[in-house]
Specification:
The structure is a single chain. With 346 residues, the chain is an alpha/beta fold. Helices cover 40% and strands 18% of the residues. The protein contains eleven helices and 15 strands. It has a seven-stranded parallel sheet with strand order 3-2-1-4-5-6-11, with helices on both faces. It is globular, with a radius of gyration of 20 Å. The model has no long low-confidence stretch (mean pLDDT 98). The structure holds NADP nicotinamide-adenine-dinucleotide phosphate (NAP) and ligand F7E.
Length: 346
């Protein structure tokens, strides 16, 4: 039986990866932060499932604390380590740049040092990101496109990206970067734009909210479904040789279009009027304003467009994403509508 250690097990990706690995007969150890209120909502269904009692273990710790990490990795004795923990919100990283670097950049080195010294045979996955491309040099982006990060988050992830490659080259570790483009799900944090939209549209439908207020409507992202991306992470650690791979859908969509698709799902057609921060999205039938723009959600530096070419992952790993952005919108709005209905009835 293989043992996996996951940092960020309580996050969106950590929760799906845990499900995936348990189904594949792994013993899964997860790093969990001490919190004054419960932070296990995304994995509580797994913790409560008697099937996984002997195969799922949580260890209290923090990616900022080396001695504690060493003890936990020794306890887990992992064959595979998935480093998913990070302060992952790009806008927030401008407010907490030092912390973002401590966890995203130095946290990665802390783990790599433990692997180098104690577990050189363990395979390491680093959660790298399309934010590395930032102010893009070319579109679509590939593994060979130069980087130009645009936020403290992106800068921290750039350090971690090169740390991973450096430890592979210097110490022959099996360490891979997964350069993942935006991937979403009903488990996505509520302040990332796709989830913010799906939740607001559901709440507006239920009469629980009047308007959706957003930032840059023109930003474009290559949005995929988180469940599709998890298998790609795992496949990267099952190859004869460590390498870096980009995972993306190959289609880019604007925030504006995502909003239209989400409202369309509840039968509302959005008509855009005005320009810049005065732009509004109106319900074509009722004339009611449902979407507004606020500078509160703008970033000091923006990533305008991301679009990935995942040909290498397709040919080397056999990885092909299954979910279109239209299906993704449907999955997310349906889940949030269900959630809003059950909250309303309790
Ligand atoms: P997420 O939902 O924000 O989860 C982040 C996880 O990191 C949470 O479990 C969080 O714990 C944990 N964490 C944060 N700071 C920590 C610390 N100091 N010590 C230990 N754990 C800490 O992120 P995600 O969407 O699942 O993404 C997973 C990883 O992939 C992240 O590194 C992210 O930057 C990267 N990534 C994500 C995407 C995407 O589109 N989702 C794309 C590319 C790369 P709490 O639950 O206690 O907060
Ligand atoms: O923003 C624009 C915003 O916060 C997407 C993280 O998982 O993916 C994620 O980072 C775009 C940006 O994701 C709002 O300006 C407009 O252009 O959903 P987001 P992100 O910044 O792309 C990458 C790959 C990661 O690695 C990160 O960890 O949408 N936008 N209006 C808005 N964004 C937010 N959050 N809120 C708005 O109201």
């Amino acid at each position: 039986m293989k043992h996996a250690f996951i940092t960020g097990i309580t996050g969106q990706d950590g929760s799906y990866l845990t499900e995936f690995l348990l189904e594949k007969d792994y013993k899964v150890h997860g790093l969990i932060r001490r919190s004054s209120s419960p932070n296990t909502s995304r994995i509580s269904h797994l913790l409560d499932d008697p099937r996984w009692k002997e195969r799922l273990f949580l260890h209290e710790g923090d990616l900022g604390d080396s001695s504690n990490l060493l003890r936990i990795v020794e306890e887990a004795s992992p064959d595979e380590i998935y480093n998913l923990a990070a302060m992952s919100h790009v806008k927030v990283s401008f407010q907490v740049p030092e912390y973002t670097g401590n966890i995203g950049a130095l946290g990665t080195i802390r783990l790599l040092e433990i692997i180098r010294a104690q577990f050189p045979k363990a395979r390491f996955y680093q959660a790298s990101t399309s934010e590395l491309f930032g102010k893009v040099f070319e579109t679509p982006q590939t593994e060979l496109t130069p980087f130009h990060p645009r936020s403290p988050y992106g800068v921290a992830k750039l350090y971690a990206y090169w740390a991973c490659i450096n430890y592979r080259e210097a110490y022959d570790l099996y360490a891979c970067n997964g350069i993942l483009f935006n991937h979403e799900s009903p488990r996505r944090g509520e302040t990332f734009v796709p989830r913010k939209i799906s939740l607001a549209v559901s709440r507006i439908k239920m009469g629980l909210q009047e308007e959706l207020v957003l930032g840059n409507l023109d930003a474009k992202r290559d949005w995929g479904y988180a469940r599709d991306f998890i298998e790609g992470m795992w496949l990267m650690l099952q190859q004869p040789k460590a390498d870096d791979y980009l995972l993306a859908t190959g289609k880019t969509t604007s925030v504006r279009r995502f909003v239209e698709l989400a409202f369309q799902y509840i039968g509302i057609e959005i008509e855009w009027q005005g320009k810049g921060i005065d732009e509004v999205g109106i319900d074509r039938k009722s004339g009611k304003t449902l979407v507004r723009v606020s500078t509160e959600f703008f970033r000091p530096a923006e990533v305008d467009i991301l679009l990935g070419n995942a040909s290498k992952a397709k040919s080397m790993l056999g990885w092909i994403p299954q979910t279109s952005v239209e299906n993704l919108v449907q999955i997310m709005v349906e889940a949030d509508l269900k959630k809003c209905k059950s909250t309303a009835s309790t």
